[in-house]
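[Q] Does anyone have a clean structure-token version of this?
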Amino acid sequence: MSDESAMDWPYWPVLPTLWADQVWVWRLGLRETGDLGRAWGCLSLAERERADRYRHEGDRQRFVLTRGWLRRLAGAYLGLAPNSLQFELGPHGKPFLPGYPLRFNLSHSGDWALLAFSRDRPLGIDLEVHRAVPMLRLARRFFQESEWERLQQLSGDYQRQIFFDYWTAKEAYLKATGEGLGALSRVELDPAPLPGDRMALWRCSSDSRGAGELVRSPTFEAQRLSLEPGYSAALVVGSQGHELLTDEILEKTVTKINNKSAGIRIYRGTISPKMRVPS
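[A] Here you go.
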């Protein structure tokens, strides 16, 4: 791990308190399996059965570590036993804890997982390792015309970086709203970057593609998260007070959410077995 990465994602001796208007993003290394036994003990019966269905041991370990730490951190924030938490799924598979003052989201790819937590704001986080995919074909299908045209003008590693930066920002937005990947083409990134590695997002009307002129509305912004070379990650923080964002809510509250002006503070940390987590 580079010195720069260590500064961006510090180790904490004790799990910090999660206050209102804070978002904590935790980085979990999936190669470190020393905490696997404890993570397994946090899982529900259904999660253990799911873990046992993985054919590859590496996939099984990544699932156990990610879900185990999700339960440990969520339980600590709520003052509950990790294995007592009863997750439910939204219409597009987004897990949540109904009735509790905690919002969360997670993503894993390659050797890392990211887990994001807030008290009262819906979250979406996405992480992607830069792997070989048909970028232009996917962009043609899921991106807006302007985004596809920009990618066509790029090449090599920079094209791959921009593609995955776009993809993670879009997917983080859809995970925050709970809409699912089928709505990728509804989101457009503003090509002008914002200070602090932020990206402005636009929500496009469902009939805007191919209609000559886009019908766009400003919406939540995405925060890029630097992990290490070969990865892209983004976080989107939604509007306060909503557990899941329905189409009706989005139509009424699709105003631009600026993390800085809204007073949202984003903190980062690296999960370590040495970090003391209240139980």
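[Q] Thanks! Anything notable?
[A] The two ends are 29 Å apart (CA to CA).
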